[in-house]
Automatic annotation (TrEMBL):
Lineage: Eukaryota, Metazoa, Chordata, Craniata, Vertebrata
Domain Alcohol dehydrogenase-like N-terminal: start-end pairs: 34-165
SUPFAM superfamilies: GroES-like, NAD(P)-binding Rossmann-fold domains
Any GO MF annotation of the entry: S-(hydroxymethyl)glutathione dehydrogenase [NAD(P)+] activity
Function: Alcohol dehydrogenase. Catalyzes the NAD-dependent oxidation of primary alcohols to the corresponding aldehydes. Oxidizes secondary alcohols to the corresponding ketones.
GO annotations of cellular component type: cytosol
UniProt-recorded name of the protein: Alcohol dehydrogenase 6
InterPro entries named among the record's database cross-references: ADH-like_C, ADH-like_N, ADH_Zn_CS, GroES-like_sf, NAD(P)-bd_dom_sf
Organism: Neolamprologus brichardi
Keyword Transport set for record: no
Length: 374
């Protein structure tokens, strides 16, 4: 390919500073170094986390350096590979991943966690293994979001942060497996280990929440209660398997009390998919079905734990990224897993700020950005 070994000039949406809309700029993407892969990004979803890092930096979120190229839910094609890359070749269809899987570290070898340590520190700092980013704009280094940066027509990622997927997978759909859908689905299947005939409540019915509903349904939960302050999400939630949908704004009492009443004591699993610590406590403790429900209001967190409740977090739904994402792609191709239903809009890169607007106004579930269309 004519571009191999050369700097590629292409378009990217650059976040110059927190709290400001993204700017479409011409950027330079350097060739991949050792153990790196340069990817032509074909499609990327726009996740709540992208919005959060831009507009809520410093507000409970770790500070990320700017300028930055956001985007971490993508699919593309390998353009070229750096030295010592053995698993990828130009033309391979891939999903870049914000969570690495080296397959060698103690965490990759443990079935208890998916937190691979490879490149973790540098990726959190917005750079690759050598301490620099491969993207620059107007002579300035542009940091890479979680080591991915898919709001760019080309990007370079470590070879331990790329899943090779089957060649017949539609990239404009399977990009969603790079974050939101895998996270929510895995939250139910892997982290929650939702069981047959159980009852569940899912808080927040965005892409992550709907995927959690889908996971509960696949696990054959008997009752799946969807909770959202935006009732426009309910129709879709039912389509995904929710048996009841409730809006906290329709009640004067706390929503966890409503769930406890509706279920005659509480649910087996509460899945928090909003991103709110307050809801997390409510979802995890206050609606869980035990004899102690009547005392809930007066108990603190430690007491809930003492009474046998479990609070579990999940990063990327507990999946071992590189290893499991190709299997999720198979599940989609075999119609076990929905993806098309999450996509409410398709826009070109130049309209990326519109995608943020749709997400925040609650009008979209996922907007997929086509990187190569102008
Ligand atoms: N742990 C991970 O690996 C991981 C991965 C992806 C996303 N996330 C996080 O998951 C969260 C959801 O992401 P998303 O892309 O689905 O977001 P989204 O904005 O599409 O969906 C959030 C939903 O929550 C609803 N909501 C807001 N406040 C509510 C409340 N008080 N009660 C009930 N519902 C409420 C909104 O109406 C919306 O439908 C975000 O915080 C995101 O950062 C975590
Ligand atoms: Zn995400
Ligand atoms: Zn590892």
């Amino acid at each position: 390919m004519a571009t191999v070994g050369k700097v590629i000039t292409c378009k990217a949406a650059v976040a110059w500073e927190p709290g400001k809309p993204l700017c479409i700029e011409e950027v330079e993407v350097a060739p991949p170094k050792a153990h790196e892969v340069r990817i032509k990004v074909v499609a990327t979803g726009v996740c709540h986390t992208d919005w959060e890092y831009l507009f809520e930096t410093g507000k409970g979120m770790k500070f990320r350096p700017f300028p930055l190229v956001l985007g971490h839910e993508a699919a593309g094609i390998v353009e070229s590979t750096g030295p010592e890359v053995t698993r990828f070749s130009p033309g391979d269809k891939v999903i870049p991943l914000f969570l690495p899987y080296c397959g060698e570290c103690e965490r990759c070898l443990s079935p208890k966690t998916n937190h691979c340590k490879k490149n973790w520190t540098n990726m959190q700092a917005g750079v690759l293994a050598d301490g620099t980013s491969r993207i620059s704009c107007k002579g300035q280094q542009v940091y890479q979001f979680l080591g991915v940066s898919s709001f760019s027509q080309y990007t370079v990622v470590p070879d331990t942060s790329v899943a090779k997927i089957r060649s017949d997978a539609p990239l404009d759909k399977v990009c969603l497996l790079g974050c939101g859908v895998s996270t929510g689905y895995g939250a139910a299947i892997n982290a929650g280990k939702v069981e047959k005939d159980s009852s569940c409540a899912v808080f927040g019915l965005g892409a992550v929440g709907l995927a959690a509903v889908m996971g509960c349904k696949v696990a054959m939960a008997r009752r799946i209660i969807g909770v959202d302050i935006n009732p426009n999400k309910f129709e879709k939630a039912r389509q995904f398997g929710a048996t009841d949908c409730i809006n906290p704004r329709d009640y004067s009492k706390p929503i966890q009390e409503v769930v406890v009443e509706k279920t005659g004591g509480g649910v087996d699993y509460g899945l928090e998919c909003v991103g709110s610590p307050a809801i997390m406590v409510g979802a995890s403790f206050e609606i869980w079905h035990t004899l102690y429900n009547v005392f809930l209001v007066n108990l603190d967190l430690i007491s809930f734990l003492l009474m046998g409740r479990t609070l579990k977090g999940t990063y990327f739904g507990g999946w071992k990224s590189v290893k499991d994402v190709p299997k999720l792609v198979d599940d989609y191709m075999n119609r076990k897993l929905k993806l098309d239903e999450f996509i409410t809009e398709k826009l070109p890169l130049v309209q990326i700020n519109k995608a943020f607007g749709l997400l925040k106004s609650g009008k979209s579930i996922r907007t997929v950005i086509s990187l190569q269309d102008s």
